[in-house]
């Protein structure tokens, strides 16, 4: 187990924005065991991150990726490169995971790991005595066939004093109401995850470390540094609060989306579509108070854009059956190509046989002409039928019977026979 004590990281923790975390234990769960538990407990797929000791993947070119990992993966598996140039494999096959992990770990400086974010269920457990070590908790859970990827103990805000609250990341999609630790049964609550916010551009979904956009003021929403004297205004909803206020209607909607992705095991695209179809979403993105009492141009454009996105989503959904038909036709076409190749091979063999037969016919014809010449030398008055041409494909009448010629001797051929 990898263990990090609070006294070892006091200085590091003082610079951390999230000061709730006091103590973390990450069990050493084998990759295959983690993947098997995830697939058996409701996860529809597993994401593997293929990286190197330098960070990015050793395989970056599409052809190189296809040649290397094509034989190791299934037809339904997906490979792509993320923003950090790490290779991500999405699969639901344990065989694929085993083969890919075996190969990658055999390559120097290469590494493979499972991305835990989409295969864990997060639970908050309260009233856990701070004297109860996290290793003991993990051991108790393992005896109940509950695998965890991480256990976190919280601490009091502004201090290093632990509090009797822990966070358990259980591998698999589960829906627990309680959990047994030791001889006690504790009530649990699903952990409501907050959106990831960039403190530079104030957008959702990424951090400032990888942001290439301009700095935005969290007070007024304009493109400049913070600590301005302008009136407080959220650039998302236009109301009088900071852009990072957790009570902002757009912040609440984003929280719904990311928790829907985690709980329902769906994509962000599908989650946003579901949230956008709810009546509460329309009221959230509706008109904001203004001096004219009407919709601002930005809000109107946003609604039009959202409507266009929904229409485009419906069109894409309608095209999916056609896509499957094209895939089926592609398979049939592939079978036809294979059959045509077989027929072409048979025709080539037949042409070769015909060529050999033609050569044999020419040889026999030359031999017949030779015999006719010998007969003519022996008896000039004897009439022979012409030898047919093989090019015309004609069949000549049979040669005159040798019984009419009479008995010949070697002297009849004169000097023509050695």
Give the key terms:
418 residues; alpha+beta; Alpha-Beta Plaits; seven-stranded antiparallel beta sheet; four-stranded antiparallel beta sheet; 11 strands; disordered C terminus; CCHC-type domain-containing protein
Can you describe this structure?
With 418 residues, the protein is α+β, with helices and mostly antiparallel strands. Among the domains are: 44-114, RRM (RNA recognition motif) domain (Alpha-Beta Plaits, 2-Layer Sandwich); 120-190, RRM (RNA recognition motif) domain (Alpha-Beta Plaits, 2-Layer Sandwich); 193-246, no CATH class; 313-374. The chain has nine helices and eleven strands. It has helices spanning 10-14, 31-40, 62-69, 94-106, 134-143, 249-264, 268-276, 279-284, 297-378; strands spanning 2-4, 21-26, 46-52, 78-81, 87-91, 110-114, 120-126, 148-155, 162-171, 178-181, 184-190. The protein has a seven-stranded antiparallel β-sheet. Strands 4-5-3-6 form a four-stranded antiparallel β-sheet. Helix 2 runs antiparallel to helix 4 (94-106) and helix 6 packs across helix 7 (268-276).
């Amino acid at each position: 187990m990898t263990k990090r004590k609070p006294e070892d990281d006091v200085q590091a923790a003082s610079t951390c924005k999230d000061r709730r975390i006091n103590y973390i234990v990450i069990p050493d769960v084998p990759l295959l065991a983690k993947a098997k538990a995830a697939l058996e407990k409701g996860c529809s797929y597993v994401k593997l991150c293929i990286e190197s000791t330098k960070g990015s993947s050793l395989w970056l070119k599409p052809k190189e990726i296809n040649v290397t990992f094509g034989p190791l993966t299934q037809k339904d598996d997906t490979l792509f490169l993320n923003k950090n140039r790490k290779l991500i494999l999405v699969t639901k096959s344990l065989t694929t995971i085993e083969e890919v992990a075996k190969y990658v770990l055999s390559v120097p400086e290469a590494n493979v790991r499972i991305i835990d974010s989409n295969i864990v269920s997060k639970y908050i457990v309260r009233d856990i005595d701070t004297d109860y070590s996290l290793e003991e908790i993990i051991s108790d859970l393992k005896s109940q066939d509950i695998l965890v990827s991480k256990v976190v103990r919280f601490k009091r805000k502004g201090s290093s004093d632990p509090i009797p609250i822990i966070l358990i990341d259980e591998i698999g999609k589960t829906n627990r109401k309680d959990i047994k630790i030791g001889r006690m049964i504790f009530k649990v609550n699903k952990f409501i995850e907050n959106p990831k916010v960039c403190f530079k551009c104030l957008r959702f979904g990424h951090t400032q470390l990888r942001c290439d956009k301009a700095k935005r003021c969290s007070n007024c929403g304009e493109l400049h540094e913070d600590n301005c004297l302008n009136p407080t205004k959220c650039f998302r909803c236009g109301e009088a609060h900071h852009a990072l206020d957790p009570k902002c209607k757009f912040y609440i909607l984003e929280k719904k989306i990311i928790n829907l992705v985690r709980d329902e095991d769906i994509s962000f695209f599908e989650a946003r579509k579901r949230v956008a179809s709810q009546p509460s979403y329309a009221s959230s993105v509706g008109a904001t108070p203004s001096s004219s009492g009407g919709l601002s141009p930005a809000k109107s454009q946003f609604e039009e854009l959202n409507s266009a996105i929904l229409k485009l989503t419906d069109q894409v959904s309608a095209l999916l059956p056609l896509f499957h038909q094209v895939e089926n036709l592609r398979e049939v076409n592939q079978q036809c190509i294979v059959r045509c190749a077989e027929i072409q091979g048979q025709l080539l063999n037949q042409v070769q046989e015909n060529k050999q037969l033609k050569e044999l016919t020419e040889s026999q014809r030359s031999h017949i002409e030779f015999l006719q010449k010998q007969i003519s030398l022996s008896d000039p008055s004897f009439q022979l039928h012409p030898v047919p041409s093989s090019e015309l494909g004609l069949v000549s009448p049979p040669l005159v019977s040798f019984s009419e010629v009479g008995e010949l001797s070697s002297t009849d051929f004169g000097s023509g026979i050695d």
